[in-house]
Design a protein that fits this description.
This protein is α+β, with helices and mostly antiparallel strands. The chain contains 11 helices and 6 strands. Helix 1 crosses helix 3, helix 1 runs parallel beside helix 4 and helix 4 runs antiparallel to helix 7.
């Protein structure tokens, strides 16, 4: 019996010194990355649900989803066209989930490397363990409260009135968070020189997660909430065992802080995954074209369920403008005119300012009853086409709105009003 007990003690010491720090570091890294992803997704979805989004966060999420679709060659996100009035608005959920999950795991690998590189000198565990404990317990609540504060006035109250930003300081979650911070501070003072009972520690964790997990589960109307809310629970449990582990001898203190080759490999692959998903495609300058005469700019506007003008206008590098009116325009059929070289250069500068060469129209917002506008550029052997909804254009200062404004400016410079603009009597 005594020998069995001695073997169990030696096994626990070996586990706590060699494996528990590794599990704790991975769990803490996953906790932080999931907390950030949870808050960012709530922020993005609330922004996209607004009648007029406040920024381009939804565009960047959908652009990353389109990149993942290209990487896996899914073919599920097709290019859009001005030919049809009804268009698919959203990408498949499977690609969006894959995008988020791959990003979370990649960030986890990078955080795990960061924590292994941080110095961990023997004999000074207290401050580091307290910081890790705070991160394990409060990463998710802090991220959730931060996004709630940022989006507090976005969603209307049940009565239809917008919520006041000042009422955020009265919300239940913030009061509970402040109360927990106060209790944690008192606990650090009381148990500064003596160990905390695991029963007491476990009871505190049960109360903590018993409030936050159900609360954030209900508020987190995102896919797979368990993927984001369960890692904080696992991280807290690992931290509880981690701080009660056996003391580390001086000759073992720095062994587990040196990253292995596997961790470096995982971190490099993770960085490559993040760059492949979120880094925009390399653009090119239209105004620096090698052969300006070969440039062909085509602008087309598609139909809607009303009386939207439907036409195509092509501007060549030599200044020739070719117009074809299709429907709901003053002039149907072909027409032609010319623009000067300076006007053509203005068009190219306008498209460069709109970041035309790096735009991803599969990440744009779409409606089902509005017009559409497309711009296609052929220059130096490259062809780039961008299509956008004419009415639902995202944030006022966003990339999609900038592209639609650029298309309007092209129309003005080319003088298409003489063929397009009409009243009900003259529209054909």
């Amino acid at each position: 019996m005594e020998e069995t007990r001695s073997v169990a003690i030696r096994f626990w010491k070996s586990l706590s010194q060699n494996w528990l720090p590794k599990f704790h570091g991975i769990a803490l890294s996953l906790n932080i990355s999931c907390s950030l992803a949870y808050a960012l997704l709530i922020y993005v979805y609330r922004n996209m649900a607004l009648p007029l989004p406040v920024n381009d966060s939804g565009y960047y999420l959908l652009r990353g989803t389109a990149s993942v679709g290209d990487i896996v060659h899914s073919g599920q996100i097709a290019s859009v066209s001005t030919a049809a009035a009804a268009r698919q608005a959203d990408p498949p959920w499977t690609l969006e989930e894959l995008t988020v999950f791959a990003s979370v795991l990649a960030v986890t690998a990078l955080l795990a490397l960061f924590f292994r590189l941080c110095p961990r000198p023997a004999g000074s565990r207290s401050l580091r363990e307290r910081a890790e404990g705070f991160a394990a317990l409060f990463a998710l609540p802090v991220c959730s409260l931060a996004v709630s504060r940022l989006t507090w006035g976005w969603q209307p109250e049940p009565g239809g009135l917008p919520s006041a930003a000042s009422l955020f300081w009265q919300c239940r979650e913030l009061k509970v968070f402040l109360a927990e911070i106060l209790c944690l501070g008192i606990g650090f003072v009381v148990f500064r020189k003596r160990a905390v009972s695991r029963w007491l520690f476990g009871s505190a964790l049960l109360v903590h997660y018993g409030f936050w997990i159900p609360t954030l589960w209900e508020k987190g109307w995102i896919f797979a909430p368990y993927f984001f809310l369960l890692p904080p629970l696992v991280s807290g449990v690992f931290w509880m065992f981690y701080i009660n582990r056996s003391p580390i001898s001086s000759d073992q203190a720095g062994d587990h802080t040196r990253p292995s080759r596997a961790i470096w490999t995982a971190a490099i692959l993770a960085l490559a995954v993040l760059l492949a998903i979120w880094l925009p495609k390399k653009g090119f300058s239209l105004t620096r074209a090698l052969d300006v005469k070969s440039i062909v700019v085509q602008l087309s506007r598609g139909p809607c369920y009303g009386r939207c003008p439907n036409y195509t206008m092509t501007i060549h590098g030599n200044g020739m403008v070719e117009y074809i009116g299709i429907k709901n325009v003053r002039v149907r059929g072909p027409q032609s005119s010319k623009v000067s070289s300076e006007q053509l250069r203005q068009m190219l500068e306008i498209l460069d300012r709109a970041h035309f060469s790096t735009l991803e129209d599969r990440a744009f917002m779409w409606c089902f009853d509005t017009s559409s506008v497309a711009v296609s550029i052929a220059v130096d052997g490259r062809v780039k086409r961008v299509t956008s909804d004419g009415g639902c254009i995202g944030a006022k200062s966003g990339l999609q709105a900038g592209f639609v404004r650029a298309a309007d400016e092209l129309d003005n410079i080319a003088g298409s009003d003489k063929w397009v603009k009409c009243d009900e009597e003259h529209c054909r």
